[in-house]
Design a protein that fits this description.
Oligomer: homodimer
Distance between the termini of chain A: 31 Å
CATH superfamily of chain A: Aldolase class I
Radius of gyration of chain A: 18 Å
Largest interface: A-B, 55 and 56 residues
Number of strands of chain A: 8
Chain lengths: 313, 313
Amino acid sequence: MPPFPWPSSVTLREVGLRDGLQSIARVLPTAQKLAWIRGAWEAGLREMEVGSFVPARLLPQLADTAELVDAAVRLPGLTVSVLVPNLKGAERAMDSGAHWMLLPLSISHAHSLANLRKTPDAVVEEIAAIVARRRERNAAIRLEVGLSTAFGCTLQGRVEPEEVLRLARAVLDLGVDRIGLADTVGYADPRQTAELFGAVRAIAGDRLACGHFHDTRGLGMANVMAALQAGETRFDACLAGIGGCPHAPGASGNVATEDLAYLFRSMGIATGIDFERLQALRTQVAGWLQGETLHGAIHRAGLPKSMQVAEAA
Amino acid sequence: MPPFPWPSSVTLREVGLRDGLQSIARVLPTAQKLAWIRGAWEAGLREMEVGSFVPARLLPQLADTAELVDAAVRLPGLTVSVLVPNLKGAERAMDSGAHWMLLPLSISHAHSLANLRKTPDAVVEEIAAIVARRRERNAAIRLEVGLSTAFGCTLQGRVEPEEVLRLARAVLDLGVDRIGLADTVGYADPRQTAELFGAVRAIAGDRLACGHFHDTRGLGMANVMAALQAGETRFDACLAGIGGCPHAPGASGNVATEDLAYLFRSMGIATGIDFERLQALRTQVAGWLQGETLHGAIHRAGLPKSMQVAEAA
């Protein structure tokens, strides 16, 4: 095998404040969320999804999203994202000052109905309305569509790659700024990941700009590697591997931010992250989330001695 | 990226009875070990390392190795391996009827002294003596050398690839049947794995025939994938991810056999393993090992619905 042309850097987006906290019943106080955002920024993370503009009665955990955006956009160099489920949420995102709004488009018909009470094609129409409204308002905010359940679904089982491609084309044609592929429920394998990222990149080019993986079945890191080899250089992750999906039973555990930071550091691929600061933040957040199931491997084992020596040298 | 030429099949070797049990203080009764061997064979595993010919006072957990070999070699189609630390152990292996003896050669000077009380070069001399003795006895048993701590060492830190290549050449020149690369302490990363497997394969060809990974820092599956892409098709694994190394603090957790079986099944790469039987065996063995720290992801989450549907169709 010839030497693989690894990228020199990748981008990690911390999504624990949204994907992580929405799957946990407890409501983290706003002050702790602000400390999390600031701590992640101080550790070198430059992209964060800080919340979601959904009705507070549905997700009281994320009711303070506007306040978080307001603080987060003041941190120099930080790109702030929020999830929006529909046009109404998008209006709030446009009001908020966030840089990006993320709209999940479930490829699985069953998951789409459970999550947004709309078919995938109805969600595409909603995205069209959001794009039109953004133009009307002349808003600077950018729009990313996350193609979720792209690798399979706990409700309907198999998801056809052709359907991923059809819906990817539909939203690309609408002019969304970028799309991502999400293994919402931890069904992906490395071969499937490499093939689907390759196929979608063939139609999306650089507008395919996010890999979102869950470690539910132990393949999270292997899937990240497969996507990386298929040209992906931006990845979502949650500190301490929290997260899941309320409409996808068993979907526990995003890939842990600190594990991804370790993976890339070990390979000599820059992330801009200060690993020790990130570990300290993980310890702090774990303290706030006592009693919740946390994940991640590097936190338990610590850095290899080989890496410590290399750093000290 | 062009479609990757994945192999159509791979071989998993169950090493839980040796690498797993030697790291656990309790002594599993011989009857349970025999049930484990039989259960793994019934689940389709065709290679097993069943024990170690070390003095019983050092590893009382493995004192019944000769009896296990005697039973295991009667299972049709099963290739039976035993670990040997030196010429004395090799004599016992030659007496035992085992098909393969595995000798660990630590690339790390510090680990070699801790593990075998010999420098790596003294171990090479011991291997020369074993090869000579095998010829003298005209024994059919084959010899595999596991190049351990090949990716780093908890005692000395960094391990130089040049040293791996030097010692690989030395034992290949002695005429050992095959060699493997072992990440004894869970320090490897996918890039390093791809590069080292590539470099060693360049001098060893098909005699490089084993990847042995620990999941200590969460990269076990990603490293297996990297080795696979670098041409490796045989992997060691331990049921329930038990294992480690008594002389490598923190080296907990071989990659779990059931997780590897799931990885390859999800990618459509044959292992010959009946996944449901393997999961049932895992449950049985976990019952015998109650109180011990077990690992593995697929056991918790279960097969994806997409895979169940594909199977039923």
